[in-house]
């Protein structure tokens, strides 16, 4: 193969359009045309995925061949992947299957926005720019949380969301499966968790100070087979699904299904409101055993090494000093940490590690191997990393994507702080005061998409994109290789057309479309 010469009949975008931005690019000039005779083959499974999406988009057969035009191969001693495009062929070398898949995503990007469609849309001269791309991710944990408890995301929407993560080379989907407002995970031993806990009588609309709801029943749940399908679908795209069952707070849906889990003498409904709820799990042995059984079924469905147990926002007003004393604890708040440790130790017996929101670092000794999700800021993450615990950074001040995207009056249900695309892009997951060996404890970061005010896939699209595109570059690309002006150009000129082709109803950079606004629905801007 020769790096010189070769032109297709029309120019195509070059390596400067890639997102996330690669570690190193050497554009040599020239193009490699793709035709009916172009072949695609190699060892990694990424070849099969790439053939499927490109055959659909281009209409080209891209047949296998002993000596293919586009060749993939696994080279274990590489770090990341290396793409070399010559005028007569492409050689992709990758450290492993995951790196090969990332390379396949880059090749799809290089073919332009039309390569993201599911069928050919007309005559086209397909070509790849000649040159070299060397790339590897900055962080191992490049994630997004999707809250399916507050508003249920049907399975097809969940699979689509996984495709969007994979297109951005994100590799963790933190799936928030339970909360006060709904239980979405089928537990065969306890069917009422979904029969009762999976449905509520209505939902609060926006942020209000009264208990008025829309009166419209809402709910849904995933069967265990549904979730096995989701896990397998994600795994093929090198996305690990990290499930969350939130305990001991955010549990009113479970208490509605099984009142003996709670602390009151009267039944409760699945909660139709938003916020922090005083109705937490009790600390009886039977309740802990109940949740051991729940997590037994969860780990049978989800192979993720890390399982999230929540642990956030746990009022203790329904617990008593007598309950704490019975557990050998000096104070009532220590029951919070005690409960978390019971389940974390049970997960450890399954060979899994517990992840919890940063409150679990304040309520007694952390369980061994625990991972801290630092959401209330960076301080808890810094302290945990210095103490030798792994950390995922997700501070609400930076990467909560349900927060409003501007201070415009027409932002739909404006809650939280302003997080513009630029704000998200300029975030760095390594806090400035974290140094030395503790830096290696930061596994990475995730952007959180909470759905109190996102009641459909369309609303999730609006909140997540294009800010999640900016976040993808934050966790992939070294800070020294990032440039806001360059990203803004690539986003507007090249990446938004890719999102258009994928059918993503993102927020336009200039502000919402009229149909994306929610006039008259109150928010709570901060």
Question: Overview of this structure, please?
Answer:
The chain is of the alpha/beta class and 526 residues long. The protein has helices at 46-58, 97-110, 155-167, 192-195, 224-236, 252-257, 285-301, 321-326, 334-349, 379-386, 396-399, 421-425, 457-464, 467-476, 484-502; strands spanning 24-34, 40-42, 70-74, 81-86, 89-94, 126-135, 141-147, 172-176, 178-179, 182-183, 199-200, 218-219, 240-247, 306-310, 353-357, 371-374, 390-393, 415-416, 442-449, 524-525. The strands form five sheets. The chain has an eight-stranded parallel β-barrel with strand order 7-8-13-14-15-16-17-19, surrounded by six helices. A six-stranded mixed sheet has the order 1-6-4-5-3-2, covered by helices on one side. Helix 1 (46-58) runs parallel beside helix 2 (97-110), helix 3 (155-167) runs parallel beside helix 5 and helix 7 (285-301) packs across helix 9 (334-349). It is globular and about 75 Å long. The N and C termini lie far apart (58 Å). The model is unreliable at 1-10 (pLDDT under 50). InterPro entries: Beta_hexosaminidase_sua/sub, GH, Glyco_hydro_20_cat, Hex-like_dom2, HEX_bac_N. The active site is at residue 313.
Q: Tally the helices.
A: 15
Shape: globular
Unreliable spans: 1-10
- What is the CATH top level name of the largest domain? Alpha Beta
Arrangement of strands in the largest sheet: 7-8-13-14-15-16-17-19
What is the β-strand count?
20
Considering the protein shown, what is the CATH homologous superfamily of the largest domain? Answer: Glycosidases
Rg, please?
Answer: 24 Å
Biggest beta-sheet profile: 8 strands, parallel, barrel
Count of discrete structural domains = 2
CATH topology of the largest domain: TIM Barrel
Shape-level CATH architecture of the largest domain:
Alpha-Beta Barrel
